[in-house]
Amino acid sequence: MKAPARGQDEEIETLMRAALGGDRKAYAACLARLVPRMRAMAASDLPGQHAHLAEDVVQEALLSIHLKRGSWDPSRPLMPWVRVIVKHKAIDVLRKTPKAPHEPVEDHPGLGAPAVDPLAGLHLEQALARLPARDAALVREHAVNGVDAESLSKDFDLSPGALRVALHRALRRLADAARKEEEWKPMS
Length: 188
Description:
Largest sheet: none
Helix content: 55-70%
Strand content: under 5%
C-alpha cells in the first residue's frame, strides 16, 4: 500500500486546526478525509480472521478523536496522533473479541432462521394466568419483557424496596402454582 502524500496530511491538519477554531464545515471535511486513512490503519492492525472488525475500530477511533480533539497539539503532525488512537482502539476491540474464529453465517447453508414454536409462550401465559393481575403484570414486564426496575417502580407506583418485595412474592406465588400443578398431574 502506497503511503499518502505529505500534502494530504497537511491538508487534513489544516482542516483540523480550523475545526479546533470552531469551523464545523472544516471539521466535517477533516473527518471525511480521515476515515479512509483510518480504515487502512485499522485493517493493517487487525489479524486476517478479525478483518471484519475494522469498521468497529474506525467508529471507536472517530469517537475518541471527537472527544479528545482538544488534546492534539496543533504544532505537531496530526497523523501520528490519529495513528496511535487507531492502534489503541484496535487493541481494545481485539481484547473484547472472543478467541473463536469468525465464521460468516453465509458459509453455513443449513443454518436459517430458527423455526418458531407457535406454542412457545403458551405455558408461561397459562402459569401467569394463575396469579393475581398485578403479580402477573409485574412478572411479565420484568422477567418476560425485560423492563428495568426503575421503570417498573414508576409504572406500578412502588418504591424500589416495595418493588423487590412485590416481585419476590409474585415469583414465589408462581413457583407455588407450578408445584401444585405438578402434584395434580395424573401419573402415566
